[in-house]
TrEMBL record:
InterPro entries: GH2_GIPC, GIPC1-3_GH1, GIPC1/2/3, PDZ, PDZ_sf
Chain spans, region Disordered: 1-62
Highest taxon listed in the record's lineage: Eukaryota
Taxonomic path: Eukaryota, Metazoa, Spiralia, Lophotrochozoa, Mollusca
SUPFAM superfamilies in alphabetical order: PDZ domain-like
Descriptive protein name: PDZ domain-containing protein
Family membership: Belongs to the GIPC family.
Origin species: Candidula unifasciata
Residue stretches of biased makeup (Polar residues): 12-24, 43-53
Amino acid sequence: MPRLFGKKNKSSENLTDSSSQNSDHAGDPPRPDGSGKEANGGSKVTRSSSDQNLPPAPPARPKLVFHCQQAHGSPTGIISGFTNVKELYQKIADCYDIPVSEILFCTLNTHKIDMSRLLGGQIGLEDFIFAHVKGQPKEVDVTKSEDALGLTITDNGAGYAFIKRIKEGSLIDRTPLIAVGDHIEKINGESLVGCRHFEVAKKLKEIPKGSTFTIRTVEPLKSGFSNIGPAAGKKGGGSIGSGKQTLRLRSKGPATVEMPDDVVDVATDKLNGLLESFMGINDTELAQTIWELGIKANNPHEFAESLDNSDLQVFGFTDDFVFDMWGAISDAKSGRLAKAAEFSEQF
């Protein structure tokens, strides 16, 4: 059971204090009476010509604050001041005085291992964060009797790949112990810590049919009440937008507050379908990565170059498949995919 708070009480740094929040100038030196108060008879403050030419200072950005708990149970912590997923995990680890390596992934607004509520590249401004930490390790021998294992793999953006979905009736679905939410730590003794989800998927795909391999996973720590409520089974779900403002986390550059874009969901669904037909892998995160490369390209040639210069070049996408993906991206950019989705939802 991980320690919630150590001897160093770091949580006190994360408690809100209304008095400090409302006194932005509490530490300023006292000013003489009437300074800067011309309307009340004070002296007028004059500026030099150089000061008058300076642009006005931009207004201070509001400090975004999020509440969090450990999914298996803990006091509530206050998290702020992060711009990407790695920084968020570090903030949570500091709050609870645990190693950041203990955090597997986070869900939003539920302590359950609900893959439809995974924290990804954006967080709703009113979302409550639940951190799932490492629990019991498991090691299983699997004979690859079929071409596809039936796994959908994602990663937490901070070095851990884990199982997002298991196809019903698949080989892994019939394998005991392996479950949605498990971190894939090793395959045949080779550590996969630090690998992206598509790298893990590629290693599993390259295992020869008919061979037996050993997979070591680590399940998230569960509370005594984790099984209360509707059973989710082994299959994961798809993400559902909230329609509210979100904090979009970026690997480079500052986080920004944006409205969610339904076009992105439609485009990644289309790309995911193409990936499944091409590779036998259902991978929403890989589709999202392809979409982010595609929206920066102006034509299929630039898109193909972006793929070749990225980590995705290891997949060796054919020219025809690249054009198919570009077609889905350009349709989404123009709004044609969104219109098609609207039409299908009416029937």
